[in-house]
Design goal:
Elements: E1 3-9, H1 13-24, E2 30-33, E3 50-51, H2 58-72, E4 84-85, E5 89-94, H3 97-106, E6 116-119, H4 120-126, E7 135-140, E8 144-146, H5 148-161, E9 165-167, E10 172-178, E11 181-187, E12 190-199, H6 207-210, E13 219-228, E14 240-243, E15 249-254, E16 257-261, E17 266-267, H7 280-291, E18 300-310, E19 317-320, E20 327-331, H8 341-354, H9 362-365, H10 368-381
Parallel strand pairs: 1-2, 1-12, 2-9, 5-14, 12-20
Antiparallel strand pairs: 3-8, 4-8, 5-7, 6-7, 10-11, 11-12, 13-16, 13-17, 13-18, 14-15, 15-16, 19-20
Bound molecules: flavin-adenine dinucleotide.
Flavin-adenine dinucleotide binds at residues 9-15, 33-36, 40-44, 46-50, 171-172, 200-204, 208, 223, 225, 306-308, 333-339.
Length: 382
């Protein structure tokens, strides 16, 4: 029977970054499996490709900063082309309470991120069709777009060059468990045993362990993206703009038009997570009209949906499952999995190769805290 040291299930950005990081540090005999025909064809291939380190959660913010530094100078052997499009990211809010809250967050000394305060005039200068009302904007000049395709390819190329084997069209049907140990995975073509199995299965994170009565309760939430037809008013290198207050909405230049999201987040079964819900399009149009009145006539040229997957406390889940031996998680990357992938891979490799991680965010992301929470909740109910 086939036997490996390490199996990683899922070749999205989580599985790819983990495979690269493990291989980079000398880990050998690694098999990366994905049920899809192409790696990265689910959430990793369906997102907004925005690099945003301004994340209110300190544990995730740290991962974002480390990762962004790596993407800016990854070294020519990792990727020969720039990964970050530093056209700027503007985080904005309407005048009033939203603006005050944004200012309190961004000027908090614990939130170490270089930014410059602007007003809506600056947004209008970059995006002339933007609304006339007032508000505040914070510019993160070195952020903006990220080349997701190049990043994923670089992780996979680096991993494969260092001996990782990748198999696509290889759906894992179940985990093989004996007592309190995971022994491997069952695929359509038979079992594969392994010392360690990593679940990097994105929106499907819950499925394989629910069957084993080892739930961690992930929640897949569907979000739509829409791209408008090309318009000469859109400057191709204009910054990303993200309204974080009530009425959340973001947009950035894409293919001559604007890519935008009304930031919908409906909980769905993973089987429906990528299904376009046409009822959402009027919601996007309505928000677009409010924020971008100068583009009122723009037609929608393209639209799609993808899953952002969350744990109970919205933090990533990285590390060994405390209930069984041989099982690790790299899951629940929510809406920041691309931005944070480098540090996610590093943290996962710590756990896989060393059985521990000294990373300051490691305790906050360990699966154990979800089980403690569950027990605490149960105690509170009695
Ligand atoms: C609309 C939208 C916009 C977003 N925008 C951004 C953004 O701008 N910036 C950012 O940083 N993040 C963004 N995200 C979040 C980001 O896309 C995700 O956090 C990230 O892609 C998650 O990666 P993953 O590898 O965990 O999941 P996935 O990419 O979904 O990979 C999981 C893989 O596991 C495989 N798999 C699952 N089950 C099995 C099985 N049983 N057997 C074999 N293979 C299996 C799947 O085929 C899949 O390839 C966005 C997400 C969405 C939906």
């Amino acid at each position: 029977m086939e036997k490996r040291k390490l199996i990683i299930v899922g070749s999205g950005i989580a599985g790819a970054a983990t495979a690269w990081s493990v291989a980079q540090r000398g880990g050998r005999d690694v098999l990366l499996l994905d049920g899809a025909t192409q790696p990265g064809s689910h959430s990793t291939g369906r997102n907004a490709a925005i690099l945003r380190t301004a994340i209110p959660d300190a544990a995730l913010h740290r991962l974002a900063l480390i990762s962004a530094n790596f993407y800016r100078q990854p070294g020519a052997d990792f990727c020969g082309t720039p990964l970050v499009e530093e056209h700027g990211l503007m985080i904005i809010a309407n005048a009033g309470e939203n603006s005050r809250q944004l200012e309190a967050w961004i000027t908090n000394p614990a939130f170490a991120c270089p930014s410059e305060k602007l007003d809506f005039q600056a947004v209008r200068k970059a995006h002339p069709y933007f609304r006339e009302e007032d508000g505040s904007a914070w510019l993160f000049a070195n952020e903006g777009g990220i080349d997701v395709h190049a990043l994923l390819e670089a992780y996979l190329r680096g991993a494969l060059q260092r001996g990782v084997e990748m198999r696509t069209r290889c759906q894992v049907r179940r985990l093989i468990r004996e007592g309190n140990r995971i022994l491997g995975v069952e695929t359509a073509t038979g079992p594969i045993l392994a010392d360690q199995v990593v679940l990097a299965t994105g929106g499907w994170a819950s499925l394989l362990t629910d069957d084993l009565q080892l739930p961690l309760h992930f929640n897949a939430r569907r979000r739509h993206l829409v791209v408008t037809a090309a318009d000469t008013a859109v400057k191709p290198h204009a910054p990303v703009v993200w309204n974080v207050g009530a009425d959340e909405f973001y947009f950035r230049p894409e293919s001559g038009g604007l890519l935008m999201s009304a930031c919908d987040h409906v909980a769905v079964a993973p089987a429906l997570g990528e299904m376009l819900d046409r009822d959402v399009l009027p919601e996007v149009a309505e928000k677009a009209l409010r924020w971008l009145p100068g583009l009122a006539d723009a037609a929608f040229a393209n639209a799609w949906a993808g899953m952002r997957t969350f744990s109970k406390d919205n933090r990533f889940v990285i590390g060994p499952d405390p209930r069984v031996e041989g099982l690790l998680w790299v899951a629940g990357l929510g809406g920041h999995g691309i931005t944070c992938s480098y540090a996610v891979g590093e943290l996962a490799a710590d756990w896989i190769l060393n059985g521990r991680s000294a990373h300051p965010s490691a305790p906050a992301l360990h699966p154990r805290r979800l089980l403690l929470n569950r027990e605490q909740h149960q105690l509170a109910r009695h």
